[in-house]
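Hi F.,

I've been meaning to write this up properly since the lab meeting, where we talked about keeping a consistent format for the predictions we share between groups. The idea is simple: the sequence comes first, exactly as it goes in, then the structure tokens exactly as they come out, then a line or two of notes. No screenshots and no reformatting. I'm using this chain as the first example so we have something concrete to point to.
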Amino acid sequence: MSLITIPTRSNQRIQLLPDKKNNRTDDIERIGVSVNEAAEMIGLSVRSMWNLVKEEKIKHIKYGTRCIVSVKSLREFVDGKTEYTTLAATLVRCSH
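Output, unedited:
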């Protein structure tokens, strides 16, 4: 960890430690996000994302009043690798 040194007019130097909070979150890959963040990540409205959560088409956990959506589940949903998206794709192909 490096120190930040700030020179002053009286030739004294002030040393500050970098903000640990910001450094920790930059190095951690998130595996869960809020419903609002999940909606933004895949380009849906927040209401549509809540509907997917309610219908259990996206994996999530509830902790108190929070709802955490699995990032892996979002990727699988967008890539069409979930049971729901596979079924929907099959129905679309059959209806043509």
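Notes:
The helical segments are 20-26, 35-42, 46-54, 71-79, 83-94.
The longest strand covers residues 66-70.

If this format works for you, I'll send the rest the same way.

G.
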